[in-house]
Model the fold of this input.
Amino acid sequence: MLLRSSIAPPSTSHRGPGCRGALLRAIETIRDRGNENRDGAGDVMAIGSRVLEQTRCTCGLAAAGAREYMRRVIAFICWFTGLTRLVFGLRRKRIRFLAYHRIGDRQADFLPYQLSCGGPRFQQHITMLGSLGRVVPISNVTGNMAVRRASEHNGFVIMFDDGFKDNLAAVDIAARNGASVCVALTTDLIGAQCLIPLHTFYYLHWKLGARAVLAATNEQAGIPEGSLDRADAVTARAMVEHAIGDQIGSAPAQRVVAKLEKQCEDSSHQYAAWAQRLYLTWDDVRLMISRGACIAAHSCSHRRLSALDRKEIEREVTTCKRIIEHETGIGVNAFVYPFGERTSVHADADDVLLRSGFSMAFTAERTWLDGGPNAFAIPRLVVGNWPAWRLAFELLFTDGIDIT
Ligand SMILES: [Zn+2]
Done:
């Protein structure tokens, strides 16, 4: 108890650049004390490391806030002085890929608003993209990195990940502008009656608050109650995301989810009703296609491929493709990696994808994973609820496919 109370103050009182150093020193002290009395030294170290991790997040958030502000100012100046447009005009023409998730009012729903873009904003994005080049359907892109028709223009492919019901609105907005979007489907979610674990955590966080989620996670991880409850909401979400990123599908994570779901039921919330309103049905998907949408595969269960063995990856990839093709009657040749970051792409994935009949795959990284073009690691820009001028600026720093 003494040792634990020694950890807590630095984690909350030091928010400046030196706090990491202060925490490291605190942990050194704790370790020394732990060596004097070895009972529980391992636990203390584990708690100390967690606190350090949290505090790094908190410091990182402050720094990220400042960087974000500066970036916004620079983006604004570049757009309104015409610099962004000028650079786009001078640079080699490319096709760039944009990753959205949801369309709608970010206040009205529980999933993190970073994943949502307002309808009017999305309309502004399409107009802006049209002024810089052309919004092209993904069917114009082939896996060998060439575009069927050579173009004088920059190309932009708009994609939506996961299979949210509100993507129907995006398809309609795009259609009104003569454009097409590509919706990447996670087949287990289509017509789902419950939330996937990732969304469950977001939901629980929103519904029950950071403390409850943290307490349950800590309990499963064997961390004494009270040691982490000073975390703020943002840090808690980061922790939860991290926890499920590593544990998704594992028994401890499932127990956490089960326990928290029970709490939600106890608070008499219509848990399943959320899921039904949240995800597309197959009828929705067919409707989207009739309105001009293209479809990509995004796995069956949205698990991180790097955490799976080859057999499981094959199932995630081939079954997803088979189900989509069966339900829609159209061929699917594009795959979107769940989570999409560098660490979530399995080394064998491109081989599995190629054998399964895919000709291209997309990450959520802005640059090529291995520094060069690879049809199975095409970069995308994950788009937030940004003004159009901000989107244009961010696209300057996003790799794309050269038009040949
Ligand atoms: Zn996804």
